[in-house]
Specification:
Elements lengths: L2 H7 L3 H14 L3 H10 L5 E5 L5 H8 L4 E6 L2 H13 L6 E3 L12 E6 L10 H14 E11 L8 H12 L12 E6 L2 E6 L3 H11 L2 E7 H4 L4 H6 L4 E6 L5
Parallel strand pairs: 1-2, 1-4, 2-3, 4-5
Antiparallel strand pairs: 5-9, 6-7, 8-9
Helix pairs in contact: 2-4, 2-5
């Protein structure tokens, strides 16, 4: 799966509109508020990575977080995030960037958020590992990385993944897929790629880079989200990890 194919989905007008609506009316999920408020001070320098139309970054700014930036690889999403910021008179710098090659200095940030399963839209495991390495590099010692993923162990999809495993074992999986857990499916908004990992896969990738895993849990374990949030996003797994050391 090549990155340009993945990015096409996030440049479609209908998709940008969906993300803009979330930025304007949905804001932070209850679970996100609980996690972010516990981990981050209002003076922390934070990055909303894979920011889309700015849902998380703009909500944090509106809540008094003073130093938040947003980065996304979609020019269309960044243009929309800037438009929403201007309309709401919020001062958040947004820029186009690649999570696997961040133009940010070493040890610059107190926290990084990769929300709405964004890390899993990076094709190939080595690509996702490179993004994790970049986050590690730009975090200060003791800095926190929060992200979400789907989970292959979700009960509703066990039959699907059993069938997929049989397809991979017989070499009959879709030719454009790189790793077991990849999905590339047609949706009403276009063709969408996402990787659905196992929890053990994520633990391996985090530990390989040196992150300390503080917690992981399903969203539904800590919050009863509104129907609007549940419609926007399926239940997901939060990961809270720390770069060891003291700043």
């Amino acid at each position: 799966m090549d990155l340009d194919t993945v990015k096409k989905y996030f440049t479609r007008g209908e998709v940008v509109d969906l993300y803009a609506k979330a930025a304007n009316s949905l804001g932070l999920w209850t679970s996100e508020k609980m996690v972010f408020h516990k981990l981050f001070k209002h003076t922390d320098r934070l990055l909303d990575l894979g920011c889309g139309a700015g849902r998380i970054a703009l909500a944090l700014c509106a809540e008094g977080y003073k130093d938040v930036i947003g980065i996304d690889y979609s020019n269309a999403m960044i243009a929309e995030a800037r438009r929403v910021a201007r309309a709401r008179c919020l001062q958040v710098p947004f820029r186009v960037g690649d999570a696997t090659q961040l133009k940010i200095s070493n040890l610059e940030l107190d926290g990084v958020i990769f929300g709405f399963n964004g890390l899993m839209h990076i094709p190939r495991r080595e690509g996702r590992r490179q993004a994790i390495s970049e986050v590690f590099r730009i975090l200060r010692h003791g800095g926190m990385f929060v992200f979400t993923t789907h989970d292959r162990a979700t009960a509703n999809f066990r039959k699907f993944w059993r069938r997929e495993k049989m397809m991979w074992r017989s070499g009959k999986q879709k030719k454009e897929l790189d790793d077991f857990g990849d999905r590339f499916e047609s949706t009403p908004l276009g063709d969408l790629f996402i990787h659905v990992p196992s929890a053990e896969e994520i633990r391996q990738d985090l530990k390989a880079r040196g992150f300390k895993i503080e917690a992981d849990f399903r969203r539904s374990q800590i919050a009863n989200e509104s129907s609007a949030v549940r419609e926007f996003s399926d239940d997901c797994r939060f990961w809270i990890v720390q770069k060891p050391g003291h700043s």
